[in-house]
Amino acid sequence: MQTKYISIVLDDGPLPFMCEIVDLFNQYNFKAGFAVMGERVTDDTQYMLKYAVDNGFQLVGHSHTHRKLETLSDEEIKKEMTEPVADIKNRIGYDMKNIARLPGHCPDERVLKICKDLNLVLIGYDMDCGADWLPDATPQNIINQTLKTAHDGAFACMHVREHTYEALKTILPELKNRGFQLVTPEQLFKIKGKTNLIYGTHIHNVNNI
Asked: pLDDT tens, 74-101?
């Protein structure tokens, strides 16, 4: 069976269950990414980020406050996208480099232009993971939709939530049984030989670059 590769990036952390999610991925020799909200990084939560990094997971930017970027000024957008990078570097010595996931996934051309000027590689998603950000999302729906839409080269968007953690207990072993290997965003680009990435445009599946 030929190996298929996916990168799941879990948004909105650091939040409870982040370390448990790391441990769950490690059980299957899988890795993932975490899209970090700057305002949630505090003295009390930074240990979660360090735990993820120490276990080989990747952190990417996800803005500072998760505000709708289209409503902000140019300078506010730049601050939203750069402030968390500097803060995390200062706190745990980790460089998030130039990969980010935008809040809301629906930027206008002005936002994309600013991200291009900031040399940001923007990762979207190419799988349906059952709207797991909703408070009433169920593990079974997350399981069904994720397994139904999993395919090679895709980025998946999940969130650091308890019901997502519960769903992953079924999703991860099943993906392994189906011949998938789960990797960080940076690993996915390298495995697929994508070295010349375009800044300021959404990448949903690396096979389409």
From this structure: 999 999 999 999 899 999 999 988 999 9
- Element holding 101 (H helix, E strand): none
Return the ∠ at Cα 144 (arms to 142 and 147), rounded to 5°: 100
Sorted by sequence, the CB contacts under 8 Å of residue 95 that are 6+ apart come out as: 85, 89
> Residue 9 — φ and ψ, nearest 5°?
-120, 120
C-alpha distances in Å from residue 99, one per residue of 50, 110, 174: 18, 18, 28
C-alpha 130: how far from chain center: 16
Provide the CATH number for the domain around residue 117.
Answer: 3.20.20.370
List the structure tokens of 42: 């505090």
CA gyration radius, the chain: 16
Is residue 127 a contact partner of residue 147, using CB atoms and an 8 Å limit?
no
Question: What are the two backbone dihedrals, phi and then psi, of residue 95, each rounded to the nearest 5 degrees?
Answer: -100, 110
- Residue 207 CA to residue 126 CA, distance in Å, equals 11
Structural domain for 109, as ranges: 4-208
| This prediction's pTM | 0.96
Pairing of strands 121-123, 99-100: parallel
Domain count, the chain: 1
* pLDDT, tens digit, 9 for 90 and up, residues 32-42: 999 999 999 99
Token digits of residue 50: 């360090």
Q: Provide the token pair at 68.
A: 């709708």
Q: Which amino acid is at 104?
A: G
